[in-house]
Specification:
It is built from 13 helices and no strands. The protein is mainly α. Helix 1 runs antiparallel to helix 2. The longest helix is centred in the first third of the chain and has 21 residues.
Length: 217
């Protein structure tokens, strides 16, 4: 099974009532690329998704309750996380504070986004999304306060880390404002690239087979 096939499996069986299709898709994207990363680098699936094993099972049960137990056998779940990177922990705390009230993924999404934001690619890629537009849609729906603050359309990973700087929990952005930034390309440049789940969203809509940049056995 590859990451695209796992995404399909997570989105094509009955979910728990009340989970909107886009939130289900986004969570499935994150879980699929995290599982692929766990298999490829030997880490645990839960840690790669930013979760502990119990919450990994919880989100799988939300997306695909009839298959949650079987899905846990597809990648090494891993042990409880001993500690998190301080920046990741600070970012998770920030996202937890501002997630939309009543959001169906509030119990996992802040930690998932924070963990994947520590990886080296565009954030939309490390979340397994189709493109930056999907990430902006996710941010608008899940973190509307932050989405409204990103009025200059700053790259989301840069923007999130800048919020930590503003809160006094980081030192990424020395410039007092975006207009004073001395690295415009790094903060506002192109975010083109291939999705790590490509072409998941379009293929799913057409019923076509899914492929992935991070294959799973």
């Amino acid at each position: 099974m590859d990451a695209g096939a796992l995404h399909r499996r997570l989105t094509q069986v009955p979910a728990r009532p009340g989970l909107p299709a886009f939130e289900r898709h986004a969570a499935a994207c994150i879980l699929a690329v995290a599982a692929a990363d766990a298999v490829r680098d030997g880490s645990g699936w839960a840690a790669a998704a930013g979760l502990d094993p119990q919450r990994l099972h919880g989100v799988l049960d939300l997306l695909a309750p009839a298959e949650a137990a079987a899905l846990l056998a597809l990648a090494p779940v891993g042990p409880e996380r001993a500690a998190r990177d301080p920046v990741e922990a600070a970012l998770a705390g920030l996202l937890t504070q501002v997630i939309a009230p009543g959001h169906p993924l509030a119990f996992v999404l802040p930690d998932m986004v924070a963990a994947r934001a520590m990886r080296p690619n565009h954030l939309w890629q490390d979340l397994g999304l189709a493109d930056r537009a999907e990430l902006s849609r996710l941010m608008t729906r899940a973190f509307p306060y932050l989405a409204a603050r990103n009025r200059t359309d700053m790259k989301w990973k840069k923007f999130l880390h800048r919020q930590l700087c503003v809160a006094g929990e980081g030192a990424l952005c020395a410039a007092p404002s975006c207009s004073a930034c001395d690295d415009i390309e790094a903060c506002f440049g192109d975010e083109a690239g291939e999705s790590f789940l490509a072409p998941a969203p379009a293929a799913a809509a057409r019923g076509a087979p899914l492929t992935a940049a991070h294959p799973m056995p």
